[in-house]
């Protein structure tokens, strides 16, 4: 397996205000046993647009890697402390990633017309946003990529944030649009209102018992897709909390927290908190306990990972839900003619 980080922007191109040196990037998991090109999956973890969660990154990428794909994990721009509304930046990050793969398809051993994205929670909202807004002029990044296509060939949405309406995950939209968004902004980012017949094929899975992002989010988008004739597969599992990732033993054991390589998705969060601790800038809840940490990256990082482990659902591996990657794989084979 060949794994490497690729920055998606130059320092001059990337204008979102961040603390530290963070630049949105993808990390590759590429087969080396031969030089053949393969279909690709870009994994887009969740985190409420405040962090890019390691629980839904490398573990998922490796699962699809072992199914024969070359895979990539996107670490996109987030807004941890609700300081600078993200607006279109994460969507441009993901659009950039799709076009980066197509531009460098030979080097990355990717089949350019078989690129899928797989998003979780807020990362599901981001993935769904590209599915419906890929033809937006700001998202096409013509100055950077010219005429390269940014439309994904298939989209997998895992317990996705969809609506800004009655069933909204409010913090995701606050991080994305700020505290006082316009109705136009809310409508643009409320994906059930943006369905169109050129939306790529959509696979959705969710749990009926999701307490954080209600399952109605999935139903709303599924109906919007169905009404436009979009190819759709929709699975709702009867039990299970939010944020189940692969719902398997590796996820439950927290392997994402112990393996150094899989922690790269928290870089922007780490740099933000590290800066506040170092400068003794008071952090608000739920990060106020960082105010008493000694200076140093190690202490900040250990606390972040401990918090993430503590916030994981109190549950066991669920074989019934853990079948979703197999279901998605069969669906990809049908829709991409693999």
TrEMBL record:
Q: Which GO terms describe its molecular function?
A: hydrolase activity
PANTHER family in the record: AB HYDROLASE SUPERFAMILY PROTEIN C4A8.06C (PTHR48081), PEPTIDASE S9 PROLYL OLIGOPEPTIDASE CATALYTIC DOMAIN-CONTAINING PROTEIN (PTHR48081:SF6)
Q: InterPro entries from the entry? A: AB_hydrolase_fold, BD-FAE-like_dom, GDXG_lipolytic_enzyme
User: Which residues are listed as membrane-spanning?
Assistant: none
**Full protein name:** Alpha/beta hydrolase family protein
Keywords for this protein? Hydrolase
Key word Hydrolase present: yes
Domain BD-FAE-like, residue spans: 29-223
Query: What is the species of this protein?
Result: Alkalicoccus daliensis
Q: Which Gene3D superfamilies match?
A: alpha/beta hydrolase
One Pfam family, short name please? BD-FAE
